[in-house]
Amino acid sequence: MEPSAISLLGECFRQVGIETVVVTPEDAERLRREKFDACVLPLDSNIKSIIELARSSPSNSRIVIYGLGGSAQDSMRYSKYCINAIFHEPLERSAALKLVRSTRPLVLHEFRRYVRIPVMTEVSILAADGSRLTVTSQEISSGGMSIKGTNSIEPGALVEVSFALLTLPRIWIRGYVSWKKPNKMVGLRFDTTDDRRARLKEWIDSYLES
Q1: Mean pLDDT, to the nearest integer, of 103-127?
Q2: CA 119, 179, 145: angle at the middle one, nearest 5?
Q3: What predicted TM-score, i.e. pTM, was given to this entire model?
Q4: Which of 111, 145, 169 is the last residue of a domain?
Q5: What angle do CA 68, 74, 88 make, to 5 degrees?
């Protein structure tokens, strides 16, 4: 990461009571030996092994991962690793601080006040007319999820979504579009009568307790 980005992000995290440390690629093995609550990684072709190192470590398998920059294609490429949030480039102080503040409870394990988990993973949507879409999740809870990547579905529409989350194999859940925004953000509310929702709730409960 550029020194300017390290400095800006370090300041943002310190403002919410989180201390940071710079880990060089040459010393990435620390992710296997030490426990970290979160990490920020530039989304480029060199980080795949570092993410795998963290996710395969017993102490850091559920570390909060922030991506820095990268394209939408980069986000989809790493979606199987469930990146939690992304700092968009060029970095802007107020936007970065807003993201840090919104995800602080997740980093500090204050889950009782934070029921929505920010996590980016590939989501497949099957619409009522049989059409299929591929989007990216933004936040997930046992009651619904927010996604980004489409303006083609309208509030009230019935859909079925499928996705996988780290230790949770791919699941399918029925839901309804509850809202949409011009920036291709869409909110989904899961159907409370869909029993398959229980598997997601079990995963979330386990995630919050770990």
Answers
A1: 83
A2: 20
A3: 0.79
A4: 111
A5: 30
